[in-house]
Design a protein that fits this description.
Blueprint: H1 22-45, E1 51-54, E2 56-57, H2 66-69, E3 70-71, H3 73-85, E4 93-96, H4 125-131, H5 140-143
Parallel strand pairs: 1-4, 2-3
């Protein structure tokens, strides 16, 4: 997911297991492998788990990339409440992002959870614009969902 082009909407199973760089390979430990284990335990033993892919859970967006990935603290609480309120959870993968106008992630596949994020990072756009210039068009923070995690070479010191 890290090297997925910025500006495109990411839906689960749109190549979610394609190793696209060290960000994704590293997330196999922090994201992909635990999601696979959660799915296995659900399928074999009925253990229900929500796998939440959190973008940027911060008090407010901090740069030009985070209006696409931001999850407000209030929306995070609302998400966790919904996860515990549904009668059958299963093993969904949910993108942890608020109702951002510039969001890169699509949660339509888990609409049955009833989670309705309410906050939008656009409320902070003017503050971000005043604090810093946008990244250059060829900057990894402008190119990829994973931003700076996608920069650098694989075999560099």
């Amino acid at each position: 997911m890290g090297r997925y082009p910025a500006g495109t909407v990411y839906r689960f199973n749109d190549g979610a297991t394609d190793a696209q760089g060290r960000f994704w390979v590293g997330s196999m430990q922090d994201g992909g492998a635990p999601e696979a284990l959660a799915r296995m335990y659900h399928d074999k033993f009925g253990i229900e788990t929500a796998c939440v892919r959190i973008g940027s859970c911060l008090p407010e967006p901090t740069n030009h990339r985070t209006p696409s990935t931001w999850l407000s603290h209030d929306d995070f609480v609302r998400l966790i409440e919904r996860i515990f309120m549904v009668p059958r959870l299963g093993c969904p993968i949910v993108y942890g992002a608020s109702a951002n106008s510039a969001s890169w992630w699509d949660n339509r596949g888990v609409a049955w959870l009833g989670w309705q994020p309410q906050d939008n990072a656009e409320a902070f756009r003017a503050k971000i614009d005043a604090a810093m210039p946008p990244p250059a068009a060829d900057d990894v923070n402008a190119l990829y969902h994973g931003g700076g995690f996608c920069g650098g070479g694989i075999h560099e010191d």
